[in-house]
Protein 1
Amino acid sequence: MGHLNIEGLARLVSETPSPEEKQHLDDCAACRLELRGLKEQTDAIGSLPDLRPPAGDWVALEARLVSEGLVRSSSLTLQASRWWSSGWLQAAAALILFLGGTALGSGVLASGESGDLAQLGPPQGMELIPVGSQAQPISNLADAADAVNRSERQYMDALLQYRQILDSQGDPTVIGDPTVRFAALEAIVAAGRAAVQQAPADPYLNGVLVSALAERQALLHTASLTPGDRVF
Amino acid sequence: MTENQLIRQACEGDGLAVRTLYERYAPRVYAVVRRIAGEEDLAQDYAQEAWIRAIRALPTFRGDARFSTWLHRIAVNSALQALRKADTRTKREAPMPETVSVDPVEGDVLLGDLLERAMDRLPDGMRQVLILHDVEGYTHEEIGEFLGVTAGTSKSQLFKARGKMRDMLRPTQGNGADGEQGVEAWGI
């Protein structure tokens, strides 16, 4: 019996050899080696990891989901993630690099100390200031974007947990009450400010604070557009 | 919040629930769609289409299978249908290279990259069967349903695909008649 061909050997990766094939494999080191290589190749293919979608994937999908009416456009996550995932992501990544790769994350305070950094594009009414230098060094845009992406995921998890807590407290319509909502956002902003003061380079805390400020701003903006209604 | 609660809220158009499901499963969906597509440019569109279909079909999810399994099948079907609709790709018309021109370097990441690139160069049918069987773990019967072929055809395509991959991954300098050196050169 001659050498087994490559397709025949590929079959033996997952099937039992016939007696003739087994006899040949016992006698032929070359075919044994080739079969071993094929098995290792198959194992390697089976161990390939999942792949992260390219940046901006969610933003494009979200836009389509909204346009097709598959999700509500007024949800907290959509408002927050729209600027966070696109402009904010890039601005934050650029900011991290701009600061010389020494500060991961930036403090967000409304105290008016920011100067030039405010022009990077945070939501109206908020200012970014560079604070802290104890974070891990980041030397390129991809790492910076990864860091911001990670903090965004943490933020989304926190947001989900926050809503779960609100849901578990009873009447879900309370969440939609603007007065209650504003008070809750004020509490988050206050807690966020205190946390950022303590850990100014923490991207998660910064993310929570930025989001709470943006949401509060959006709520105030909504209120200002309805002069005839007494929102608060 | 349990997955069923998330799904229920996503059905009602809750953006946060949809986003959470997306964050959880996007890499899995993108991986299978990207590999079936065979090229990056198509993959993003295919992945988006898969998610749109899945979110649309969410109300039909009964929980008979795991959500990840259900979603994965939608992604596979969506990518295969999109690929069928796509124009004939010039890349497929080009002759398949004998080997993938990458210098051998150690490391799982580079090996993974090498495998991905070799798979991209397989003809569509072989690549789809190889991915669905050896990467995703579907049976030949299931693959037959996906592709509209018999289980026997699926098997035949799989063995050819494995052989082509072996040929492509065999370094040229070790490409002897029986491939002995090539087996060892890549460690696979």
Note: The radius of gyration of chain B is 19 Å.
Protein 2
Amino acid sequence: MRNVFFNLLHQQMREDDDIFLLIADVGLGLVDPIQNEFPDRFLNVGIAEQNMIGIAAGLCNAGFKPFCYTLSNFLIHRCFEQIRNDICLHQYPITLVGTSTGYDNGILGPTHHVIDDIGCTKVLPNIRIYSPGSVQGIHRVFEEICQIKAPAYVRIGKGNFSESEPVDGLNHMVIHRPDSSLLVITHGNILDNCIKAADIDTRFSLFCITRIKPLDPAEMDILFNRFERVLVVEDHLKGSGLFNSLCQYVVEAGLAKVRLYVLAPDDHFEARIGSKDFFSSLYGLSPEGIVSKVSEILSVEGII
Amino acid sequence: MVRSNVLNRDLPITTCRLRMRIARLISRANASHIGSCFSIVEILDAVYQSVDIEKIKHGAKDRDRIIISKGHAAAAVYAILAQYGLLENDLLESYGINGSLLSGHVNHFVRFIEHSTGALGHGLPVSVGICIGMRSRKLETSRCYVLVGDGELQEGSNWEALMMAGHLKLDHLCVLVDHNGFGGVRETSQTCSLSPLTKKFESFGFEAVEVDGHDQSAILDAIAGFKSGHRPFAIICHTIKGKGASFMEGQNVWHYRPPSKEDCETLNIELLGGSE
């Protein structure tokens, strides 16, 4: 998905002279074509992420629309004050492109478990947050950030998952089963596992929310009118991710009949290392784990 | 140069009047940072003398940028903006009043404030970005002036920016350091020494000069040197925190303490012979 995003960016830089790409010394080989073609609109700032954000803000002052790229843990956590003050406060059209999200780099240990980045960013006014789950999702995200000049964070997981059906819109119903009473909502890299789970268990529908912030109230109302039981599956701490946002939405909208469930890591740092699949199994984010949770919900609800 | 006729014979009358205005604004608002404001008055005035105000007024793409990284010296910045016709007097007089846009740290909701600061260590990276942008746009005549405090230089982000400025040879970047020797609580030499500051800048690829930060002609000469130079430029301005008020100079309690009405009257005598 990362390669797709940068190919789109490369094409767009041919159309839009205001785009400037900053990287913080990551992406070996990835951005060379951009650097070669647009040496005046590319800079590798070195291993200096907070400087990258400040430079991006300065570029906006000079009329540019910068993209800042590095691993999400360096991009978001290290640069929080810069993102808050230099980007969001000024409503600058800077796109933060963060990769290796969730447990993509699980083997590297807890400093590289990117499971709180949505929580860190969504508290900031003016920023838009995208978590595409497929190549098609990357295209929709890129279209929107080109149209809307606003601060944005794009959370890109590893892999090149492709959905079999054409995708309309940022957020979309991936699998709609008219007789289902349970809706699974997911985003980002876990979409793949959710689709596999839906192949095993046919009793739920599946919706993908690519734009985590802002949520679309009209869209949410349609979903919650149709489904009163909703399971959120995400590779993000449950206290500050999409589940948390949906909890707030349901309470504020007074949707008393809606019951929200969650599959997501608890509020802790994990000392153990492991692959993405290891952590998916650990937190029930694997296809089998999702099927198990679906059965549990339907059982408790007396559906089966 | 027209000089003040009382205690502060070394200061121009214009900056003495500015100090008086700043003191009254801060006193009425019961605000902090008068010491930090008084150390930069000559620096700010020299910088605004050195730029094309009309381009700034019109928001020209090739205007010079002035970034106030030590955003807590806001009252001095607002007073200077008013002096140069960039801030209405009515708005200036709203400083510190509920509902006013004039915050205690400069913010971009005020016209002609290029960037909101207040958290320290942000102005330099932004200024480096501006210079990179100007270079990319081939705006050969635009320059960026950034005013940083010496205490602020303890923030690591500055050194990332300075390293990059030297690496890219951003010769349109002028860093003015208000070297008053104090941080928020005590001397920077006691908390984490900046010495040798000039050598540090030079080792980062800058041309660096030291001036008396209350000698406007010396600052103007340094800025002329910057304009004709070919490297990023640092002007280390040796200043006195609270300069112009005998009872404030070097007394760091005035980092936070607002002047009373009586203090303002004393200042009026010391700065202007009681004429305002």
Note: Chain A has twelve helices and twelve strands.
Protein 3
Amino acid sequence: MVINSLLFCFLSFFQLAAPDPVDRADTVYYSDSGYVEFTSSVPMHSFSGESEQLTGMIDLEENIIDFYIDLTTLKTGIGKRDRDMYQTLNTEDHPFAEFTGSFETVPSIPDQRTEVTATGEFTINGITNDVVVQGCIEPGEEGLILEATWSLLLSDHDIKPPGILFYRVDDTQEIRIEVVLKPTSRQKLTAEN
Amino acid sequence: MKQLHILSSLILNSLILLLLISVTANAQLPRERAQTDGLVESTFWATTNIGISTVQNVDKNNLESSVMHTFGLVNGGIDTFYGLDDGANTKIGLDYGISERFSVGISRMTFNKIVDLRVKYNILRQTRSGSVPIDLAFKSSLGISTLSGLGLEFKYLVKFFPLNSSDIFSVLKSSPALFQCIGND
């Protein structure tokens, strides 16, 4: 009983005590306005879609990377194609594409452009697969700038590329993200969410 | 007394468990939709279905080209293969979305060589939340017969808009949005 009480008090203090907002151990890097672009190709033609509502955070202390995008914010410039794309990606049932993982080697806060590798799980259409993503982190005026590119196979996520007969969207989609992650207090981010 | 002790211990253990869960749950951001409400999309799959206009409109800055064929009456029976033998009235058209709600269009059909100018405006757009329960659109169309002898032959229209192919290309180049839409299509 006494041990339980002590443990309870300790954990309460651990979670509720507000640390110094400039404490680096309390800092995560967060953005809700990151840029994401995909490039898709059909025979003799290619097109791209983009969104500026990529949301995510990097926690260097805990080595956590977590990003997601509401797929209905992706726009290709042609409304009919957008609607067909949402239907193909099944956004009614699975509105998000998301990545959760960690750095293979946790980088310290870089003072120059640094290549990083992240491993984790990528989910779209409700199907999760392991992925390895190469990217770069560099310091910016407002925080960390993260850039990454990787290829996504639609068939890996049970998405049938749309098309007619042999004229089909390619199974491989090139994904690129670019996001400025601003330093944010972990406590503040937790409270806001 | 012993039961009370067990009960209090159980409550404390539960609280500790809850705290631990809330600490680990912070590892992932909560997923939030960018828009909790939005328009009902694809009420119809096209702006025109079987010759009848729908509430669907052309999206802003999009150019939609269409080729429509209308055959004879189905009640012609097997002798006319239910209208297919009567030949098709072909209508070729272009529609452009000025805004998300307003589009303009032009087309030309075989029947009476009619050139058709039209506008469509979405008065109401249905929302997923039901705050607007229906789609309602207004469409107005003006048909000009360019048959010979009526004074509105197509050659006069061409004279009125003296464009040749290079002029059309110049117009497209001076309108990058329109040109891009055509390129994308």
Note: The first strand of chain A starts at residue 27 and ends at 42.
Protein 4
Amino acid sequence: MLAVLPRRLLGAIPVIFALVLAVFTLQKVAPVDPVAALVGAKAPPDVYEAARVELGLDQSLPLQFWHYLTRAATGDLGQSSVSRTPVATDIATFLPVTLELLFVSLVFAAAVGCLLGLATAQGWRGSGVLRVVMVSGASVPVFLTCLLGMLVFYRFLNILPITGQTAYVDAPTGPTHSLLIDSLLAGRPEVFVDNLYHLVLPAFCLALIPAAAIGRVLRSSLEANLRADHTRTARSVGLGEKAILVRHTLRNSLGPVLALVGLQLAVMVGNCILVELIFARPGIGFYIARAIDKADFNAIAGVTLVVGVLYVVTNIFVDIAQSVADPRVAL
Amino acid sequence: MAVAEYYAAPGLLQYRGRAGLAVRQYFHGTSVPNYVAFGALAVIFFIAVFARQIAPYDPLVPAGEAMAAPNAANLLGTDTVGRDVLSRVLVGMQATWFGALAVVAIGALVGGLVGLIAGAVGGWFDTVLMRITDAFLALPGPILALAVVAALGRSYTNTLIGVAIVWWPLYTRIVRSEVRKLRSSPHMEAARVGGVSWWRLMYRHLLPGAVPVTVVAASLDIAALVLMLSSLSFLGLGAPQPAPELGSMSAQGLSYVFSAWWIPVMPAIGVALIAIVANFAGDAIRDRIRDR
């Protein structure tokens, strides 16, 4: 299956090129003057002009684009006008925190979604209520889930923490910037557990919408497969419902679910920004929210590029997983 | 007429006017939950149109004690400067609802037009357009929308433009695939043989066939758009303060969640209400159109 990987990665190049072009165009149409952002609005004309030349803004647009493209390819995403550090360094610090959240959240979403799908497809007791929950769950804005989660699990029950990554002030800060990995590398399992504990509520809030979506799609594809001819044959030779479900319908129902997960990742990445902001997690969402607030377009552009590329590559793997689950899906 | 009445099905006779019959026929076969969904949709439309008339107070002017809990005078309480939360939520629902409708309308019109032309013309033109929409669809929409809005600058119009820019390719795909299917259908062949002009073929013989799928996709998209618009507003990418926008109201009230929960929670519930109704109504519309 991995044999198709190089071809798919090559196929992603035009898409990534389009992404860079889009971000470059946005930078050009943005009303923010990048020179003034660097030297200040009251800089003398000669300083301003020198900075303009230094940034390469005196060159023609195609040349500027070429420089932007080559710099982006080598990992130079410009400088953040707020932190005055390279955007690439900032992203390397903030992104791992977000990836942790997304990963844990995806695990939650898959578990809850599969449970919902199985329960409603088999008509367990109370599954009618679950169906309404699934439709409504996909309609609740993520900030409402977060607010209610905070009120219930922190204010009233007081069983889950709501801010930051860990309560340990001496938690390790390097080398990967992912606290789950760093704490294990530093031999501090108690920090690892505490970080997971801090992840539960944000990850769950982020997982609700994809879980509802996974549940809906799994239900409809399971129902189609449970009505299929091969299932009827399996039933007629006397297999039990459980065996039919596990051996004959579950795997070939996973294709649409995986396709959906690929799409839902875009929604999750977007919602992740809000979740990190609300739960004060120092991730990429926190970074981009600050950049929006301070009109730091280099940072926004850098995050858009990195997240876009990660999304495209992840979706290639999702496609491959889809054809592993269901070999009829052509790559 | 007497004979016709005599042979007509008994159920039809109770509808004297043509209008009553038309309504009856239109809703024939609609299930009860779908009636409820359409009813809720009508209520949301009513609230959206008459928000400023229904709102008990001016959404921009203090109307009571600051941070008062929900009470008889202020049904949903007041915010940090004493403005009525109910009034602000109602007016915010208006902005969100019409914003989502506007984006869907722009997306369906622009995207649909591009899809129609691409599907009808075919050839390299079609290939190029489809590559462009492929690239759009392969990228994470919410992040792209965020970057576009951040680049254009903060205003509600820019937010709508930014979201519409990432939204139209969906409709291009849908309309194109439908048009490709219709192109080879017998009625097109008949029209072509009959010497119908190219333009007339497009708008009279291809376009109407693509309308139902577009309407279904659009109605199912409204809920997602409501959520995206309110999320952008939560991040400060919407109408600037002090405009009553649901997302930004919730973000502003975030630090008061434990002292005055109604300030951030009520606007968020407003968003959820619109999105839930839009989702159920979208499903109902899909059922109706599919059953035809």
Note: The CA atoms of residues 97 and 194 of chain B lie 45 Å apart.
